[in-house]
């Protein structure tokens, strides 16, 4: 293998470990894996396909693949992508490719990677290496948005929903969570600035979207070294359902008077009752939590920049 930090996979020996979570997306990733492997091979890549049993197994495979000099191409949802990013963030020369195989696929969506995993293979073959940030909750890294309160209740319900709902599980989770929701009082500290409020939720956003296309933090950037921290004060459930929730899918909810935004490198969050924080679709910590931005922590293959003719 060559050394250094090439910009594209084409500049190194083209060996990849195709890391597949066969149960992701209700089995979508497993079903797509043979066609994805063929598509990668057809683009001149040497592919070694590995299936994961769970997130920890995925971390182990990713570390082993990197030690072999392989790029780790993840065919799964954001949960496994986040776990792999966490495992590889301190490994020199590690490179991650993203193929959407889950129900939400928000990391791929924000990066502009095609949501068809076979079409997304073109990014693996011709994409550019880019250093991206991660968020970290009490020592564990994530790629997308860590949120707590109403959001985490909705995520928990979505994870328990039947697989046949597909990407609708997140809307289903939100509606089910809303029925039983009662406001909580949260305390936030962002780079020393403290806020206390009663309301729905707080997020620490490394990326723009979660929940299958909900743009909770539309101004967040994956390479600015900062976390966007949107929080939502209390409003009636009717207003939330009819005015705010529909706008989240376009990111226009931020104009509502109950939505506020902070931005910084370190965030501390606590509440007046127990909550579990979720990130990349999975539990990541229990309040109180300390969240921080990890600037340029991972290298990811992203669509090649377009240049003028």
Question: What distinguishing features does this structure have?
Answer:
disordered N terminus; 29% helix; eleven-stranded antiparallel β-sheet; 309 residues; alpha+beta
Can you tell me about this structure?
- With 309 residues, the protein is of the alpha+beta class.
- The chain has helices at residues 24-42, 55-67, 78-88, 106-111, 121-126, 150-160, 169-180, 237-248, and strands at residues 15-20, 46-51, 71-76, 96-100, 128-137, 140-142, 145-149, 184-190, 193-205, 227-233, 259-264, 266-271, 276-279, 282-286, 289-302.
- The strands form two sheets. Strands 5, 6, 7, 8, 9, 10, 11, 12, 13, 14 and 15 form an eleven-stranded antiparallel sheet that branches.
- The model is unreliable at 1-5 (pLDDT under 50).
SSE blueprint:
Elements: E1 15-20, H1 24-42, E2 46-51, H2 55-67, E3 71-76, H3 78-88, E4 96-100, H4 106-111, H5 121-126, E5 128-137, E6 140-142, E7 145-149, H6 150-160, H7 169-180, E8 184-190, E9 193-205, E10 227-233, H8 237-248, E11 259-264, E12 266-271, E13 276-279, E14 282-286, E15 289-302
Parallel strand pairs: 1-2, 1-3, 3-4
Antiparallel strand pairs: 5-6, 5-15, 7-9, 7-13, 8-9, 8-12, 9-10, 10-11, 12-15, 13-14
Helix pairs in contact: 2-3, 6-7
């Amino acid at each position: 293998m060559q050394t250094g930090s090439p910009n594209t996979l084409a500049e190194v020996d083209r060996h990849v470990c195709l890391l597949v979570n066969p149960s992701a997306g209700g089995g979508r990733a497993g079903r797509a894996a043979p066609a994805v492997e063929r598509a990668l091979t057809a683009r001149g890549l040497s592919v070694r396909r590995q299936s994961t049993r769970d997130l920890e197994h995925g971390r182990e495979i990713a570390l082993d693949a990197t030690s072999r000099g392989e790029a780790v191409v993840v065919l799964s949802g954001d949960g496994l992508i986040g776990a792999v990013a966490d495992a590889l963030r301190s490994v020199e020369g590690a490179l991650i490719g993203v193929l959407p195989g889950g129900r939400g696929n928000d990391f791929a969506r924000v990066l502009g990677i095609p949501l068809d995993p076979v079409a997304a293979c073109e990014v693996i073959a011709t994409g550019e290496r880019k250093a991206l940030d991660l968020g970290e909750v009490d020592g564990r890294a994530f790629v997308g948005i860590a949120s707590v309160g109403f959001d985490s209740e909705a995520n928990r319900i979505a994870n328990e929903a039947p697989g046949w709902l597909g990407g609708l599980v997140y809307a289903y989770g939100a509606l089910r969570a809303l029925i039983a929701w009662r406001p909580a009082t949260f305390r936030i500290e962002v780079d020393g600035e403290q806020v206390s409020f009663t309301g729905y939720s707080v997020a620490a956003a490394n990326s723009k979207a979660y929940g299958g296309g909900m743009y909770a933090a539309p101004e967040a950037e994956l390479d600015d070294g900062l976390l966007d921290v949107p929080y939502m004060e209390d409003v009636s459930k009717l207003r939330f359902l009819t005015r705010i929730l529909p706008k989240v899918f376009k990111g226009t909810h931020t104009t509502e008077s109950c939505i506020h935004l902070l931005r910084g490198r370190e965030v501390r969050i606590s509440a007046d009752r127990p909550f579990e924080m979720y990130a990349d679709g999975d539990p990541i910590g229990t309040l109180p939590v300390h969240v921080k931005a990890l600037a340029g922590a991972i290298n990811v293959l992203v669509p090649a920049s377009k240049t003028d003719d």
